Amino acid sequence: MTKANRRIVTTVIVGALLVTLGVAGKLGPARWIFDHTLLPLGSGMTGLGVNVSEALSNIGRVQDLARHNVQLERENADLRQRLAADAETRRDNELLRKQLGLDVATAPRQVAAEVVAFAPDSYRQFVTINKGSQAGIKPGMAVESEGVVIGTIADAQAGSARIMLVTDPEFKLTAKDQDTGATGIVRGQLGSGLVLDKIGQTDTVKPGDSITTSGLGGLVPAGLLIGQVESVDTRANVVFQSARVSTSLRVSRLRFAYVVLGL
Prior knowledge:
- By secondary structure, this protein is an alpha+beta fold.
- It contains two helices and twelve strands.
- It has helices spanning 3-23, 28-99, and strands at residues 109-118, 126-129, 142-145, 148-156, 161-165, 172-177, 183-188, 194-200, 210-213, 225-233, 240-246, 256-262.
- The strands form two sheets. It has a six-stranded antiparallel beta barrel. A six-stranded antiparallel beta barrel has the order 6-7-8-11-10-9.
- Strand 6 and strand 7 (183-188) form a beta hairpin.
- It is elongated.
């Protein structure tokens, strides 16, 4: 008999013996040993393996967080360097402008006032505020509310002033496209927003562009927001282009106004 055959026969005999002992109830002590020693030991080893796996996973996550924190620190350092460089550039520019005798741009001075009367008719659009010439207000000055130009001062008394709103058909103000530099004149249209006309045919104006004051002539400084371009009329048979401009002015909600005195 070969060695392989002997192993098969031995396995069969041991299996038959175990079955016989189990039927005869003789495997109780062996089963007790298995249940109280080997089985708990196996369960403990399984739990240990799970705990080790979780620990290794946690170590991996901690390492990932550490690498991420290092990256964030580097990015923050880079941002701080850029901010410092920008601040240095602004200081250098201001110094150069002063040395060249140029004005350094500053925020315009304003006078806050309360709207005390609204007197529209079928054609004109005016509101009255409770500040006037005693506060330095003069005819022609721009007036803002909620970040946009709502009109200009029409006339001023000692303690009050009237504002001609941008929706008044007589309103007009030189303006430019902040995005492209195209210039024109903003005019009021009762009930239908604003129009930017007198735009050169070779100039570019696009829907969505911001329209601001140009600062050309008068008491209105440059850079005050008027509105956004809604549409552009580029007919070839006219000398100038024109564009419809939206305004966020809502007269019914107008409570406070800010008169721009200048720089």
